[in-house]
Write a structure and sequence with these properties.
Blueprint (H helix, E strand, L loop, with lengths): L2 H10 L16 H13 L5 E4 L5 E7 L8 E7 L19 E2 L2 E3 L7 H16 L8 E6 L10 H7 L7 E6 L4 E6 L2 E10 L1 E10 L3 E2 L8 H14 L8 H14 L8 H6 L5 H5 L5 E9 L5 E2 L2 E10 L4 H12 L4 E7 L2 E2 L5 H13 L4 E7 L5 H4 L5 E4 L11 H4 L6 E3 H17 L1
Bound molecules: zinc ion.
Zinc ion (ZN) binds next to loops.
C-alpha cells in the first residue's frame, strides 16, 4: 500500500465527528496526535495546540529557498460530519478498502487531502527537499462548525504561525470533471459564497387551541417561510462562474450565452446543483421549533435558515431577506463572509503545470464553491485562497454528492494521482 493510502486509511479510522453547529463538541485529538507523530517521525518539530479539551490542531513550517517570497499555507481539517452507519454499505469509520476505493466518512471531506499533505511534507523533510518558498502545513479542528475551535482560533490566538503567508491551498477544488470522453477539467476554487445562519423568531398571542386565533406565531412564521421558499434572489454572473462556464463551453464546443447561464448550468450533469447555486443567493429553511402541547397555541415560533450569498451581496442579501420575511419576523444571525480571488499568478501557473504533467492536456478552470470552508478564517490574514486538493476521478462518480453523503469514498488511484500532483506543485510553487 502506498504511504498516502495508508495515511488516509489511518485518518478515516479516527472518528472525529463534529456534531454541533456552534463548535462546542468534537474530538480531533487522536487524529491530530497521529498527524503530529507522523510529522515528528520525519524530523519535524510540529506545534500541537488545543483550543479546548480534545480540539487538536497541528501546525508546522518547512523553510523555503527564498524567504523573501510569501509563504504558502497548505491546510486541511481533521473533523468530519456525522455518519449514520445504518445507511452505509460499510461501517463509516472502518477505513475499508473495496473495489479500488477507500470508504469512510472524511474520505473526500477531507482526510484525503490531509493524507496527501502529510505524505508530501514527510517526503520533503526526509529527503531534505527545499521548496522554493516557505510552506506552512496546518491540520485543524472544527471546520464543519465554522472553525471557531480550529482555523478561526489559530488566526485569533496564534497568528504568528502564519507570518508571511500570502496564499493558501485546501479544499474544495483540484478534482477532475470529465467534460467528454477523456477530456478533463480540473476545478480550482477561486471564490466561495458567504454563509449567514439565521435564527428567526416570531412572537404571538398564546392561548387555548380550541378558540379563535388571529395572532398565532406558528402560522405567521410558516407563512413567512413559504414566501422565502418561493422567492428567487437576483441572478448575478460572478467572474469565477462566468469563466468556468465559458471554459466548459470551450472544451465541449457547446456555445455559452452569458445572458442565459442557467442553460449552461443545466448541461453540467452532477455538477449542476452546486454550480447552479452560485448564480444567485439562496436561503433554505433547515430547522423549525414551536409549541409543546396539542391544545396550546404557543407564544413564540422559531426557525433556522441557511442563507448563502454571493461575494459583494452581503448587505443586499440581508435587506432582501428582511423584506421577504416581513416585519413580524425577528432576525438574528452569524455571518461568515464570502471569499474571492483572481485566477492568475505564479501559483496558478504551477498548478496548471503540475496537473498537465500528470494528466496531459487537461485544463484548469476556476469556479465558485456554493459552500464555505476554513478559507473564511484565513482570509482575515489577507491570505489568497485556492481550493486545490488534486484528485482524478472516474467520469461516472457523482463526486459532489459524496460530500457529507452516504458511502463517501475516494478512488485509490485518484488519491495517489493527487499526491503526485501536490508533490510537484509544492516543489515548484
Ligand atoms: Zn471539508
Amino acid at each position: 500500500m502506498s504511504e498516502v493510502v495508508d495515511l488516509a486509511r489511518a485518518l478515516v479510522r479516527y472518528d472525529t465527528t463534529n456534531t454541533s453547529d456552534d463548535g462546542a463538541t468534537g474530538n480531533e485529538r487522536p487524529a491530530a496526535e497521529f498527524v503530529a507523530e507522523r510529522l515528528a517521525d520525519a524530523g519535524f518539530q510540529p506545534v500541537y495546540l488545543e483550543s479546548a479539551p480534545k480540539r487538536g490542531n497541528v501546525v508546522v513550517r518547512l523553510p523555503g529557498a527564498d524567504p523573501s517570497r510569501g509563504a504558502l499555507l497548505v491546510h486541511g481539517h481533521l473533523d468530519v460530519v456525522p455518519a449514520d452507519a445504518s445507511e452505509w454499505s460499510v461501517p463509516p469509520f472502518a477505513g475499508e478498502i473495496r473495489d479500488g476505493y477507500l470508504w469512510g466518512r472524511g474520505a473526500i471531506d477531507m482526510k484525503h487531502m490531509v493524507a496527501m499533505a502529510l505524505a508530501v511534507a514527510r517526503r520533503f523533510k526526509r529527503d531534505n527537499i527545499v521548496p522554493p518558498r516557505d510552506l506552512v502545513f496546518a491540520f485543524v479542528a472544527d471546520e464543519e462548525a465554522g472553525g471557531r475551535q480550529g482555523a478561526g482560533w489559530l488566526v485569533e490566538q496564534h497568528r504568528g504561525l502564519f507570518d508571511g503567508v500570502t496564499e493558501a491551498i485546501s479544499e474544495v477544488g483540484g478534482f477532475s470533471y470529465t467534460v467528454r470522453d477523456d477530456v478533463r477539467a480540473y476545478l480550482v476554487e477561486t471564490a466561495e459564497k458567504g454563509v449567514m445562519w439565521l435564527r428567526l423568531k416570531v412572537r404571538g398571542t398564546p392561548g387555548h387551541g380550541s378558540m379563535l386565533h388571529t395572532d398565532n406565531p406558528v402560522a405567521k412564521l410558516t407563512k413567512a417561510l413559504a414566501r422565502l421558499e418561493s422567492h428567487e434572489f437576483p441572478q448575478v454572473l460572478h467572474p469565477a462562474v462566468r469563466d468556468f462556464l465559458a471554459g466548459v463551453s470551450d472544451l465541449t464546443g457547446v456555445a455559452f450565452d452569458p445572458d442565459d447561464p442557467q442553460a449552461a448550468v443545466a448541461r453540467l450533469g452532477s455538477l449542476s446543483r452546486m454550480i447552479g447555486a452560485t448564480l444567485r443567493d439562496t436561503a433554505n429553511t433547515t430547522m423549525l421549533k414551536a409549541g409543546y402541547k396539542a391544545n396550546v397555541v404557543p407564544s413564540v415560533a422559531e426557525a433556522t435558515v441557511d442563507g448563502r450569498m454571493l461575494p459583494g451581496r452581503e448587505r443586499a442579501f440581508e435587506r432582501e431577506l428582511a423584506e421577504v420575511l416581513g416585519p413580524d419576523v425577528e432576525m438574528d444571525w452569524d455571518m461568515l463572509p464570502p471569499v474571492e480571488t483572481t485566477f492568475d499568478g505564479r501559483l496558478v501557473d504551477a498548478m496548471a503545470a503540475a496537473i498537465d504533467a500528470e494528466d496531459p492536456g487537461a485544463r484548469l478552470l476556476p469556479y465558485m464553491l456554493s459552500a464555505g470552508t476554513d478559507a473564511k478564517s484565513f482570509q482575515r490574514l489577507g491570505i489568497r485562497h485556492f481550493g486545490f486538493a488534486p484528485l482524478r476521478l472516474p467520469p461516472d462518480l457523482n463526486f459532489t454528492a459524496l460530500f457529507h453523503g452516504i458511502d463517501e469514498r475516494v478512488p485509490l488511484d485518484g488519491l495517489e494521482f493527487g499526491e503526485r500532483v501536490l508533490d510537484r506543485l509544492l516543489r515548484t510553487c
